[in-house]
## 1
Amino acid sequence: MKTKAIKDITKAECVEWRNRFTVEYSPTSFNHTLGIVRAIIEIVIEAGARRDNPAKAKEMKRLRESSKRLRLPEPQQFEKFVREIENGGGGFSKACSELVQFLAFGGFRISEAKHVTWADCDFGREKIIVNGEPTTGLKGRRVGETREVPMIPDMRRLLERLRQERPQDPPMAKVMRMSECQKAMNRAAKKLGIARLTHHDLRHLFATRCIESGVDIPTVSRWLGHKDGGALARKVYGHLRDHDSANMAQKVMFSETEPKAAPLPSAETAPQNGRADAANGTDKKANAQAKAKYAYPWWASANPLEVFWGQLIEEVQIVPLEKYRRCAQEAMKREVFAEELADRQALKDELMERVAKMTLDEITAKIQAKQAGQGRKKHRECKRQRKETALQVRQNRTTTLSARERYRNVVWAWPQPAASNSRNSPSPGGRASLPDRQIKATSRRPACSHRGS
């Protein structure tokens, strides 16, 4: 296959290559290589050089990958491992030992560690800002996104020593002078008689030390740059040393112990119980105030996504923890552990990655409908008040008309004839005997009396 044109490769040749490759390499390496071969042939198909992809044949199945059993050094072994690399006798032995410590004390990927500069090391806040590759950024994140890793005491001592040795380095100078040290690590591991370690094994070592020291898994996951809330960390880094497992096993009890009589409440504990009851009353009041903000009772919804998302954006804990955890598992479709619930921001970030943004926006608009309705109600109330004010102004206007308006509204009312309704019969005394013209102020368009005669 190395010398043959891609358009001439057959399915039989692909199967023969698969059989040879799986004998020499691990299932993980084969699966990665098979993916690359399939992608290359797809490019050839798009170019029109061939019609089928033999790497996607039924016989070219991916292999099942088994979890790698990590064999990490103990603290004393790691110190000997670092000293052995430093005393290797090479020109870069000291720089290689510094890179090994930097990876182990920070949990960085090798692609991240070689781009850390002195400007990224914040000694005041005791944090290291990780930017990743300048062109591609951090793994699984957009270019420009960063993450912060705490400076553990060993890391701080290492960086302070390096800074004292290199005071002339500018802020943008790289902290590590070596980009890889695999050969030095292989030589030191072989000489000490321990399992071979890779750059990524040092990342495993950092996570394991953190968990054994009591750091919760969601926090370790965030330090490592995972966005799954700790699911991968539990699967890969959640192992303990044998002596820690033995200590934990001592806490498992099957036999019933002798029950102890519960002490009666004394006068000293009575005030404490009263304070506890007051605290419970305060919590109930806070829950009632929080629920009053919403027109839609999302905490009682049958949709677990609505319950979980509503509690994530609400500061007050309205939903009971057991129901909150159950809804979280159904919404994210994975196991959610109790210690994860404390890190609400990590759960929120993971849910936004798993669920479409449009769906979350619809739920947000639904559970916040009362706030929008209150805005519309307030607008209608203001509009009604403006109308009432305008009507009151019109009603309060004076009814007195100006002289000119009264002149226009004057009606010349003539008296009706006394004897006859005929228009031809003259009135007694003629026009001169008629009374003076009378002026009557009426509305703009009055009904005149003489028009009906």
Note: The chain has a mean pLDDT of 77.
## 2
Amino acid sequence: MLAKGDSPRISRADAKAAGLKRYFTGKPCRRGHLCERQTGSHKCIECKRITDGHYSHSQKRRVCLRRYNHSEKRHIVSRRYQQSPKGKETERRARRSPFGQDTRWRLNHSPKGRERVRRQNSGLKSQDAKWRYRNSEKGQEYQRNYQRTYGRLPRVRARLRAHHLERIEVTYRDNPTETNWTRLQNLYARRHRDSH
């Protein structure tokens, strides 16, 4: 916002004749803003800033943009721009940018790029080596020993949990009036912690 003496006072007609985009009359707008106005629309700059801020976040703007982006008009404009010299230059610059297709191709086919690709592929080969080891006789023997040692624990724990639950249910079924259900749940939780 401008103060009264910041900008020379000029009428809208004079601003239009001079080809200016903005002018300042020195009078506040109807909302009380004392600032420049747009020559074309006669709008106060501050009012426009406020309404544009509201509109940019509104559902109406999102719907309008979505409709435009999927319209035939947008595709025609886009095609026309891509075929223009400026559009072709922009496309050429984008392809040669650090993330463009040409740059990626050059990186992958340069000596350093080939080395990087080889390192990435060696990681895949190491995964293949792990797969071959797991499926060899030695690897399968190791897995059988591991299962014998550690594989039973989850099954045993699940069986113990089922046993505890069954005992609680039987106790509750036999003495429904004398049994405190929360006490049984606490007992089960304690036994469950002890079994781990």
Note: Residues 72-104 form one domain.
